[in-house]
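Risk register update: the risk of archive-format incompatibility is retired. Evidence:
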Amino acid sequence: MRARDDFLRRLRAVRRLRISLRGWGGVGAMAAVCVLALAFVLLLPLTQSRGEAGADLGGQRTTQGVQARAPQCDESTVQNQSPTPSDAGGTTIDAIKARGVLKVGVDQNSYRWGYRDPNSAKGDLAGFDIDLVTAIAKNIFGSAYTDKSIQFLAIPTNERIPAIQDNRVDMVVRTMTITCKRAGQVAFSAPYFVTGQQVLAPKVSTITGYNDTLANKRVCSAATSTANDHLNADKGHKIPASVTIMDPVPNQLDCLVKLQLGEADAVVTDGALAASQAAQDPTVELKGSPFTTEYYGVAMNLKATDLVRRVNRILETYRTSPTGWRASYTKWLLPTLRADSKSANPPVPQYK
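Archived output:
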């Protein structure tokens, strides 16, 4: 109301001025008055927009609002956004205990991480990730834990998030990098491993790393992997535009097969996984240094806060226990990653 009265007052002043100028006979003067009147009209929306919220305009009340911005995620610190550890129970943990089985999505083809042990009579799953799953299950079930307390489900790379969202599994422990995009889809524990993207290629290849030597080369990566994201973002910038980014494969190990068959010239994947693949196949090797820093986390449903906090508590003990993280690293990863690797120590957790 105040803005409208102000406008009308100004408009009456313009009319009086125009009448007083009629005797001047000056076209320029009249033009100036017209410009002044137009300015008042154009300023009306501005005075209204700066007026009080809920100003009465034509019998309708309006309010001015500013849309709140969603908090931005920083890829360099997203691994520090997990909730603080807790031993408390909750609906998710209670449901797992009542069921008597922890359902976990894992890999069965990643050598030394999650794979079928050929030396086991039953072809049991073994590896660094499998050791962690066992530690989690033993803590949740306590004295009720048995060798049937875990249901392992082999999940391909591109099914990790859907399996969690569809509640097919309680968690995924499968060399899964914590990223901003994924953190909006699933909940992550604090990180339990640090690695980086790296290039894997035949020893006889002229490729030297994630650089210009990839020109005119066919590069393989897994669907929904951070490797595939980097390849598409970096083409024409960090790597030559002539690089052929192959159609992503469902499972990361499929890239090694394509490399062996001569259908790919190089693979981009986590250095920790690439080292294990190099241990499987002595004709390939890591090329160059890691070009990213990434953290693995245990992935769970966004609603399973109680389970996330419990896993973080378990990781606190697992990192420092002489039979935990260090023993598992020595057994499975030390031969390929070495004691001086950036992966040789568990990452120090920070919580939101």
